Amino acid sequence: MADSPSCAGQGISIDTVPYLPSLLSIWRKIYADSSLTPAHLRCVAGRDGAVFFRNTLLCIVLLFPVVAFAGDSGLEQKFPFNIPRQNAEQALIEFAEQADVTFIFPIEKVQEVITNELIGYFTRAEAISLLLDGTGLQPEIKANGALTVNANQVSLTKGDNKMKKSGLLASFIAAVIGSTVVDAQAQTTYTDTKSAVLEEVVVSAQKTSESLQEVPISVSAFSSETLDNMGLSNITQIADFSPNTTLDFTAAISGSSSALVAFIRGIGQSDFASNFEPGVGIYVDDVYYARTVGSVLDLLDVERIEILKGPQGTLFGRNTIGGAISVVTKKPHNEFEARAEVILGEYNRLDVRGTVNIPITGNLFGSIAYSSKNRDGYVQRLPFPGVIEGLSNLRYDGGRLNDLPSGNDLGNENNDNIRAKLLWDIDETKEFLLTVDYTRVRENSAPTSLSVVLPDVGPDGVPGTGDDPISGLYNACVAGVGPPICTNVVGVGDLTGDTPYDSRFLTGDRFSNYGNAISGTALDSWGITGTYTWQINDNLSLKSITSFRKLDSAFGEDADMSPIIIDHHGFVMVNDQITQELQLSGLSFDNRLQWLLGFYYFNEDGGIHDLVPLAGGLLQVNGPNTIDNTSIAVFGQGTFNLTEQWSLTFGLRYTDEEKDFTGGQRDNNALLSNLGLPLSLHPDPSDPTLYYPPGNNNLGFTDVSIRAGTEYRFNDDFFTYFSYSEGFKAGSWDTRVTAPVLVVPPFQEESASTYEVGFKSEWLNNTLRLNVSGFFTDYKNLQLIIQRGISPLTENAGKSEIKGVEVELQWLPTDGLLITGAYGWIDAKYTELDANANASGIFLTNELQNTPENSFSIATDYTQPLAIGGELHWHLDYAWKDDHFNDAVNTPELMQESFGLLGANVTYRAVDDKWYVGIGGSNLTNEEYIVSGFNQPGVGYIIATQGRPQEWWAKFGINF
After folding, report:
1. By three-state DSSP, how is residue 954 classified?
2. What distance in Å separates the CA atoms of residue 309 and residue 174, rounded to the nearest whole number?
């Protein structure tokens, strides 16, 4: 072609460029009378050899053969851009290279224009708009899907066959991938979920929505996306990724895998009974869960989880001296949305979950979320190799556990959860949200095995004189050297000649035991909550949260892990609770004061019935216990901005709490009376089976907790704070007496005061987030579980000091790659203990339970767009904990050495996230570790609950 010049200095003829000759032919026909000629064409070779043409005018008709293969897919696809502020000519060339497109534009119209800096992950349309914003060059998406740019407000239209040179910047044709024309039907798109900067995290840790980076307390926050990426399914699993946090799924001696044990910064509660209060408060949508049984929550349709560190006595109140865990679930909205997911895995795992959001009318929206989780257990109960004669299986559950699974695979899952919500947008300022939820659990007992059987003989070799008096007495009966009661046990008869309890029942395998009694959990829990929100005006809002919850459960275990009745734990717990909270919040003094005032009412009634046969039935504990607790509080907190950078915070809460308790602990076999204990030492001399003083007991507690602090923001990316906060946990009464008492044994409230200093920061253009806090806690009047014979009792036994550091990091080093990390260091030590604590084996040198000195976690998430469409999401995490003890006595067999858990998964998400499929695994290195345990010297054993072994799973999900 005579009029097809070569690219000067490049040796590339226009004729050699694919499709250009045909484009020039069309150009000649349309612009025959134009002053532009092909001589104006100028080509530039890119880094990869692709040729870009500038200084050219093309009519919209010219787009037709090209846009036919572009479609919408090219516009939706996202690309990484890194273009500095510079001359538009060079910026547009770099844009073409980074967006992987070929386009043509007139050079004389852009030489004097300076474009904006463009850094991030955008579609081509988003990127060109941001690049040219404010330059006078106007980007536009045409109806045919092409990207165009118009100079001086002149649009490029199909009818504009003749265009003036002065009014034109050429069309951007989003057409050529790798400078090669591709058919439209063969192209697919992907949408990347990652942005070029870290997303803002919004939390409600102070009862109002605000940025995590502006909350003056240490908070670990987990979004629904984070939970999905990690493959987490219940609340205990998040503790591995929150510094100085321990969440166990079972409480010692409960036998239930639904009894949460929560410790934050060394403060918590390991007992589950109704007369004990947790040290870490659990909240779901602002509703407090009073009982730890039933609090191993399924992460169903969760928006986020917040773990608040340190005392939260001002805004959250009672029983949050260690911290609070707040679960926020998703609200219904005005668009139809549905999701279904199935997970298959080892141990016959089958999890099914689904959610649906339905707009009912213009201002009424509903949602339903459901999950069913099922898998076999990993600790097996084996038949003992021998004949056990003359034994009776004393039932300790009242028949409540009859519908459990087989009972021989401990640590299985069999639970169902459903939550329904109805949101009424009354008008622009008012809304009412109604929530109903239900949980059903039918599981075998926790995955526990026998670690040690203690010797039952003393120095003289006589059974019953060693370290374990009750099983030793049983062994003496078996040997025929016991007291007369051995031959007349209620419900059993004669124990003489039965099998003794000794080390023969150690299987030598931590994943098996010889237990055979009914063990497990039958739990039903439901609640209804109404939340009313009224935005009274721009500066004043009111929120009311009204809730009723009911718990009905039975649980227990064969704690001796043998076919003999040495120690069987059985419990029936029922509980009703009503809560009402009012929050009035607002802004005052020209928005310089942000404040909140509140009122809280709580009432629960119910109780727990202990049914514990021991030593072949020699001791048969039958303990009905009822409670009625009422708590009323008023509270307030405000933050005053002295300047735009410096603010002060002060809060106060007054609590008045009343507790009523009736205990009825007795021994159906009247063992001590039969051994000669005088009737005068019984609370009722006419009833030798009654061990607990009859009648109602009452305790009252009042508390004033304060919070004070100051915050200073150096700039938008660096926020610092210092705070002082208080919290308290109410006292109660001990119930687990195994000998007659004449006076009800109470224990008093405990308290914690914490000083905290920290900073929250963002770096590298908001791609790196680093939050650090340091704290010191004065922990007083500790409620410690102290072993008295065969009874684990609770007493106020001392003081401790706890100090530590917490570090949390998020880093987005490149688009699509996210690295998160956390580190916790804690130094927790007793500073004062009484003689009772020392007598039970707790000394100043002991470590606080469930409190590893060091812990850290790291996780990586990488989103990989695929040329075929869709994306792969890769996740890898590792969580490590230092040595720590699982009981206050620091039993060596219950010390867990340092260990780490490795998890990984990969998920493919289709175009527009319509469906996804993934595979993953947990504990990939198959670490063996324990999560709980119990040392029972009065009976003669040590048991340990085992952590989950290595497991693989696969999932498939659909989004509608």
Report:
1. strand
2. 51
Task: Choose among 726, 803, 800, 799: nearest CA to 757.
Answer: 803
Maximum CA pair distance of the chain? 125
Length of the chain in terms of residues written = 960
Contacts of 48 (CB under 8 A, 6+ apart): 97
Residue 230 has pLDDT above 80, yes or no: yes
- The DSSP letter of residue 191 is -
Do the beta carbons of residue 937 and residue 454 sit within 8 Å? yes
Contact 951, 347 (CB under 8 A): yes
Whole-angstrom distance, CA of residue 337 vs CA of residue 356: 6
What confidence tier does 310 reach under pLDDT thresholds 50, 70, 90?
very high
pLDDT in tens, 450-481: 999 988 655 555 555 555 578 889 999 999 99
- Using CA atoms, how far residue 326 sits from 235, 311, 826, in Å, is 10, 14, 23
Q: Among candidates 348, 343, 346, which has minimal Cα distance to 372? A: 343
- Distance separating alpha carbons of residues 711 and 638, to the nearest angstrom: 13
Element (H, E) at 225: helix 224-230
* Dist CA 448 CA 381 (whole Å): 10
Residue 19 has pLDDT above 70, yes or no: no
Look up residue 834 and give its two tokens.
Answer: 């009484």
Distance CA 943, CA 2 (A): 93
> What are the φ and ψ backbone dihedral angles of 917, each rounded to 5 degrees?
-145, 140
Cβ atoms of residues 793 and 785 within 8 Å: yes
Q: For residue 859, give the nearest of 876, 873, 872, 874 by alpha carbon.
A: 876
Rounded CA gap, 633 and 580, in Å? Answer: 11
Provide the token pair at 193.
């979920």
Q: Give the tokens for residue 217.
A: 């307390």
> Which DSSP state fits 61?
G
Name which of 246, 242, 243, 250 is nearest 267 in CA terms: 246
CA distance 293 to 262: 12
Q: Which pLDDT value is given to residue 82?
A: 84
Tokens of 482: 């016991």
For residue 184, which amino acid is it? Answer: A
d(CA 295, CA 318): 17
pLDDT band at 325 (very low <50, low <70, confident <90, very high): very high
Are the CB atoms for 711 and 719 separated by under 8 Å?
Answer: yes
What tokens does 92 get?
């547009």
Q: Cα dist. 526→441, 574, 618 in Å?
A: 12, 12, 38
Q: How many CB atoms lie within 10 A of CB 914?
A: 12
Which residue would you say has higher pLDDT here, 205 or 178?
Answer: 205
Read off the pLDDT of residues 786-841 as tens digits, 9 standing for 90 and up: 887 788 888 898 999 999 999 999 999 998 999 999 999 999 999 999 988 898 88
* Predicted structure pTM score: 0.79
Bridge partner list, 956? 342, 917
CB 170 within 8 A of CB 104: yes
CA terminus-to-terminus distance, the chain? 55
The 3-state DSSP class for residue 625 equals strand
Both tokens of 632, joined, read 């009323």
pLDDT at 100: 75
DSSP characters over 741-806? -SS--EE--EEEEEEEEEEEEEETTTTEEEEEEEEEEEEES-EEEEEETTEEEEEE-EEEEEEEEE
Confidence of residue 387 (pLDDT cuts 50, 70, 90): low
DSSP-based three-state secondary structure for 143: coil
- Burial of 117: CB neighbours in 10 Å, binned 0-12, 13-18, 19+: middle
- Quick check: 651 and 706 in contact, CB under 8 A? yes
Buried/exposed 43-75: b ≥16 CB within 10 Å, e otherwise: bbeeeeebbbbbbbbbbbebbeebbebbbebbb
Token representation of residue 866 = 């695929």
Q: Report how far residue 18's alpha carbon sits from residue 24's, in angstroms, rounded to the nearest whole number.
A: 12
